[in-house]
Design a protein that fits this description.
There is one protein chain. Strands 1, 2, 3, 4, 5 and 6 form a six-stranded antiparallel beta sheet that branches. It contains six helices and six strands; from the N terminus they run H-H-H-E-H-H-E-E-E-H-E-E. The longest helix is centred in the C-terminal third of the chain and has 17 residues. It has one domain: Alpha-Beta Plaits. The chain has 145 residues and is α+β, with helices and mostly antiparallel strands.
Length: 145
């Protein structure tokens, strides 16, 4: 390796840059393409129960994926350490580990249909309710039991 390259690689990052970064002024007025996707719905579903098989022979996770891609053209799911604590109707503390789903929608009828689907899903997997946020408001969607 050349000596000059070695020195450059070990130099601080600012010394390695050969060009100045673009200023905000140079990019501020450039045309850009944006697409408004609409409002956002967020809901939490229990990760272990979603892996179980539905009566149709597929995991609930796979079925939800198909619904969200088909009707909303996509979604974002966050997995990891998403846990929650709450009190049930009898005042007992509950705990659950969840996956967070985010869906954009532009038609209010779409969110109504999604809520109906989530309520049915909650009943199928044995949940009393599902935590949901729509337009920065928190809701409990109660199952159809």
């Amino acid at each position: 390796m050349e000596m000059g390259m070695e020195k450059r690689r070990n130099a601080p990052f600012s010394a390695r840059r050969s060009k100045k970064p673009r200023s905000l002024g140079s990019v501020a007025n450039r045309p850009r393409k944006k697409q408004l996707l609409g409002a956002v719905a967020i809901f939490l579903l229990p990760s272990q129960k979603m892996k179980s098989r539905s009566p149709r022979g597929h995991s609930y996770d796979d079925e939800l994926h198909d619904i969200l891609v088909e009707h909303f053209s996509g979604y974002t799911v966050t997995t990891g350490n998403i846990s929650g604590y709450w009190k049930d109707a009898h005042g007992h503390e509950q705990y659950g580990e969840h996956r967070e789903y985010r869906i954009a929608f532009s038609d209010p009828d779409d969110i109504s249909a999604l809520q109906d689907y989530i309520c049915g899903l909650a009943a199928d997997i044995g949940e009393e309710s599902v935590y949901c946020e729509i337009n920065n408001q928190a809701w409990l969607l109660h199952s159809e039991r």
